[in-house]
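note to self — DONT lose this again. spent like an hour looking for the file last time. sequence + predicted structure for the chain T wanted, 207 res
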Amino acid sequence: MRRAAARLARLWRAPATGAGPAAAPLRLPGADWAWRPGPWAGGGPENGARLAPAGCDLGDGVRLFHDAESPDIQAARRVGGSGAGRPLGIELPRFDGGFLSLAIALPAAARAGLGRHHLIGIDVAFGEARPARVFARLNLRQGPNAEALLRDLPETDLTGTEFDLWPIETDPARVDEGWIDLIFEAPLPARMEIRDLVIARRLRAAL
């Protein structure tokens, strides 16, 4: 996707602004809010991989889930490179599960002023051995009710998708919690690298 590639290329050249929801927001043309989650902005495990059991916290509200029985899964953030991105590497030497996913909690700033006139997008830059099947799922919760939108990501190293909030049944202005699942379907490579990941919100063009 050319738009995803262009957005990530601009952000990759920009200096990092720090990790976490409280960090200075990214300036992304056309977006009224943009954010690089912690593992790609300086938070989470650094050089020297650590074991990554299901449900482990990678920093800044990003959690790793999988259904594998093998204890060998490891995660590490590579530091010392040029540009803003801090690639996240995941080692899967003997992956025996059906899926692996990253659950990325949306900070309060992403939900502030949210409405049906918004699109929420995710752009991802893969490094080594991109998995063949990757999905993004936006989850919005309002009280006991939850709604999910699922998208299949194009099979390119620079990829992304957007979620249109106009047709959903949930009132975006009353959402209590939101998160995006980045889902990788088996078979998975022995190692994969996510060079950068950015979530942004923008206004949908008038119908």
